[in-house]
Amino acid sequence: MSFHPGRRREDPEINFIPLIDLLLVILIFLMVTTTYSKFTELQVDLPSANADQAAERPAEIVVAVAADGRYLLDAGTPQVLAPEALVAELVRAARGQREPVLVIHADAGARHQSVVAVLEAARQAGIARVTFAAQGGATGGGAR
């Protein structure tokens, strides 16, 4: 039974263009938000610590770097030094010692250039072993 004679019924048509647009937007979103763990992970081999104590402590030369850029060298008697005199005093303090270790106690407010100047003075004085002192733990006790 045909209620409309002469009219032919058209087949339904599905428009795929909006579907393709939606899939491209989703694809772009997924590409942007995907994390690439290959590029974000860093393989680091950390050294293991031993509980064995060293039989002999090396000779230490302690240099403190104040917040205002002054240096305090503790080689027998503490003395405040100018940056220019630091190399000569490090050479004098290292004389007669076998492979001394320079321990730098830098104030948290000290400029980086002041610390780099101590490292440069150590290089010029021939001191190859350098370490930095740090505050231990949340209690604020102990150095290094």
TrEMBL record:
InterPro entries, A to Z: ExbD
Transmembrane residue ranges: 16-36
Location of the protein in the cell: Cell membrane
Main location: membrane
GO biological process: protein transport
Topology with respect to the bilayer: Single-pass membrane protein; Single-pass type II membrane protein
GO cellular component: plasma membrane
Entry coiled-coil feature ranges: none
Native species: Zeimonas arvi
This protein's record includes keyword Protein transport: yes
Family named by the database record: Belongs to the ExbD/TolR family.
Alphabetized UniProt keyword annotations: Cell membrane, Membrane, Protein transport, Transmembrane, Transmembrane helix, Transport
Domain of life from the UniProt record: Bacteria
PANTHER family xref list: BIOPOLYMER TRANSPORT PROTEIN EXBD-RELATED (PTHR30558:SF3), EXBD MEMBRANE COMPONENT OF PMF-DRIVEN MACROMOLECULE IMPORT SYSTEM (PTHR30558)
GO MF term list: transmembrane transporter activity
Protein name: Biopolymer transporter ExbD
